[in-house]
Amino acid sequence: MIGLGTYAFFWQLSDRMPRPLTLAQALERTAAQGVGMFQICDYPKILTFGRGELRDLRRRADDLGLRLELGTRGTTTDHLTAFLRLADVLEAAVVRTMLNPVGDDAPLEESEGRLRAVLPDYDRAGVTIALETYERVSVRNLRRLVEAVGSDRLGICLDPGNGVAALDLPRDTVERCAPYVKDVHVKDFAFTRSEGWVGFQYTGTPLGTGLLDYAHLERAVRPEPNGIAQIVEHWLPWQGDPAATAAEEQRWTSVALEYLRDYQKEHDHD
């Protein structure tokens, strides 16, 4: 299933906009694009929502025909328990999180212990934890941790571009993670020379125009046959003013959805 996440609305939801989108408005725009999934990811305000607000959000998602997922950072037991409670009210089947976010340098053994402590509750609730690939934890170590825990309720949120800063190449990341993928973040990326030719910038680019080998990812993971959500995200630099940035963000989303749909049509016989 193809979906959008809060990172597809990163700037439109931010306080840099004169009138930032609400989460409900982001849901409405997602449904208007004809997709069936929305991931509320790295959106701290969700922790301030009362139970009534969460139920209203769930009802709005139902009205729009959207499934919901959640995303956060960190593995402390209190934090993951709080997100399990959110998942229960929002009927979210996946909580994406990240090992060792900035400010938490717990060794992998400690993270493993934390996950083992909460996974029985996640299992009873039918909710899966998906650990995202990114530069603070090597893909090799991430896979080792998932294999060590050995739970069907623990897997990987695959984002091939995140680990480049730690020299985890995107194709290697895909191949190492493929057996354990529960979620995919789909975004494209590219290097450009910095002004004066001193160094590079590594930023997002519209899907299909950068370095992401989506065909390789699709062959390795097989998200559609395996029921794995593909959540569209962007690394869009600020475009100089709110209106231009919002318009470009919307354009990138349209490009990404068209790319994914065209790919599916071309390969639906595979």
TrEMBL record:
Source organism superkingdom: Bacteria
Entry GO MF terms: isomerase activity
Gene3D superfamilies documented for this protein: Divalent-metal-dependent TIM barrel enzymes
Keywords from the UniProt entry: Isomerase
Stretches assigned to the Xylose isomerase-like TIM barrel domain: 29-253
InterPro entries membership: IolE/XylAMocC-like, Xyl_isomerase-like_sf, Xyl_isomerase-like_TIM-brl
Name assigned to this protein: Sugar phosphate isomerase
Organism from which the protein derives: Dactylosporangium sucinum
Lineage: Bacteria, Bacillati, Actinomycetota, Actinomycetes, Micromonosporales
